[in-house]
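Async update (no meeting this week)

Hi team, since we skipped the sync, here's where things stand on the single-chain job. The sequence we agreed to prioritize is pasted below, unchanged from the tracker. I ran it this morning and attached the output directly underneath so nobody has to dig for it. Comments welcome in thread, and please keep replies under the output.
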Amino acid sequence: MLRRFATAVVRRRRTVLVGALLALVAAFAYGGKVANRLNNGGFADPNAPSTRANTLLDQQFHTGSPNLVLLVTARQGTVDGPAVAAEGRALTDQLAHTAGVDGAASYWSLGDVAPLRSGNGREALVLARLTGSDDQVNVRVHQIEPGLVGRHGPVDVAVTGQAAVFRQIGDTIRADLARAEAIAVPITLILLIFVFGSVVAASLPLLVGGLAVGGTFAALTALTHLTKVSIFSLNLTTALGLGLAIDYSLFVVNRFREELRRGLAPDDAVVRTVETAGRTVLFSAATVAVSLAALLVFPMYFLRSFAYAGIAVVSVAAAGAVLVLPALLAALGRRVDSLDVRKAILHRFGREVHRAEVGEGFWHRLATAVMRRPLPIAAAIIALLLVLGTPFLGVHFGQPDDRVLPASATTRAAADVLRTDFRSGETNALSVVAAHGGGSAAIASYASALSRVPEVARVDALTGSYADGALVAPATAATAGRFANPTGTWLSVVPVGTLEAQSPAGEHLVHEVRAVASPWPVLVTGSSAQLVDSKTAIFAKVPWALGIVALVTFVTLFLMFGSLLVPTKAVILNLLSLTATFGAMVWVFQSGHGAGLLHFTATGTLDTTTPILMFCIAFGLSMDYEVFLLSRIKEEHDRGADTVTSVAVGLERTGRIVTAAAALLAIVFISFATSHVTFIKLFGLGLTLAVLMDATLIRGALVPAFMRLAGNANWWAPAPLRRLYDRFGISEHDGGMDELEPLTPAGAR
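Output:
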């Protein structure tokens, strides 16, 4: 089948290339502005109690937690001065009458309430709620913020709050993406020239990467008409689009050049390349896509968006590698080696290209050395990985807030003032909603009980305000309109000012509030409640996601090699590698080691979703390297070589190309560590570490050690499974990976 396909591509190369060019132009024309259609949210479970409580507050009570905060600072004197107070009331009135704003209140409009005034008296707050979807809120912030920020007569105004923070996060990520691409692409091109030698050959992966990114932008744009898609998925699109294009192109171009060296004509070499390396690319792409598809089990569209982007970019990259790239190779023929910079440099110094003999390479020597002492080497490396993973035992998960932005960001700077100068928890209040409930006595009793919860400063309810179990302020006409509707009521639980919403203390408060006996069914919402519910939803689905990834890995490797031990080893080693990576991420990003060097603020928590995302991506990518290495080892073993020889030759034949692929992919990922958003730094640095660790410690040392210890048991399976493999298995000789020819100066070692 692949032969017929490849033959058709070769014969119709011009049609394929013209079609690809038109498709690329159409993809960028349709999807080029995809960022404007994507959402900044997606961290909440739509079926969680906190989400349902927000819906009730919006639909039945026409209220909700404020998501826009104005920090008003008096230029002279205090916020109680006549001119400042007049300007504060004018700002509140202006905001209240702005389209899309459902209610605005301030220190001045509420009668000089102390919690909305800073300790030094120079600052006060205006609170508002923007209504609508994440997209609508983001647009409204963009529209109204310019008219609010800056000097207004006797005051200066800064904007913060969840809506403004996430708008600035989105804008920052767009700028970071452009910078990451500007860093990664030139460096990658230079390294590609070093790896391929030829400038022409080195440019081919970038062309495939452009196809992958453009096609995915178009796919995501189409998806926005059907569902919500997170803007953060663009990071994965860019990273995987370029990274996988490099991986797949490396295998395909290298195999094509190998077939040319064996004497095949260019057209025949293309056909043979698609039959072999093309099959491997398709198989690898399927495993990566299925690993990323595991993210679809999660209810938050933030994680699901990465599945959409990942599946699309893997599919388009694979299609580019087995359709467009072969057509390009057929058109170029032997000119693929044009502009051979590496050969020119060697000639400049009077040296010739030398092809290393089997058994003399670094990777052969490394494998042989490991297999001489497999047990102590494996034990030492496993101990190292476990030590690196130890910090993960103390992980505390959280959600992004303003502190993922640099301290210089305007919304972050304003939020920092709220933390240091205000001693009120108004912006972190929990809302307790009873859609069907009421009665003054029951409300008073319940509010009094809630106010006794430790870390609760005050409870506001229909019957008044309560603190430490006592009524401290009677009900007014305003409270009747705020806290009641014909069928139900809600209460505002204000924590002490020192409590951070995104913290273990905030989570504990949610559990305490929910544990208080209520006279009617209630739902609790607020930032801390959303954190609790998101973690509950994620951890409930983690076993399913891990099970899907592990099952796909196991079945795939069994179908490739007919062994039970090989897939079991792969799962265990990948878990070891990723555990060490996660431990390092906790040590750096949760504990803050290196925060000054990497320019981020440690909050004592790790973003809940990023490790899951990293796991699915890294596990899928590690399958590439696992299959390529094991295929060559199995090929040597089937030729009659013993375990030591087959492992050493297999690692020698694949070590350089795997290392080159990993290094190039790491360049793409590490460019995201330059982001100004903390969890994007975590994403980039974490995946860089995972890829490099997998390509070195795992493939270079642990795999040879384990295979040496197992011996012939590596390829064992019970009789029923052996018959299953004989019928449905995929021969490793059908695809496989050819070694990248090691070029060194003649006579050098």
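Quick observations from my side:
The longest helix spans residues 162-196.
Residues 65-167 form a domain with the Alpha-Beta Plaits fold (CATH 3.30.70).
Reply here if anything looks off.
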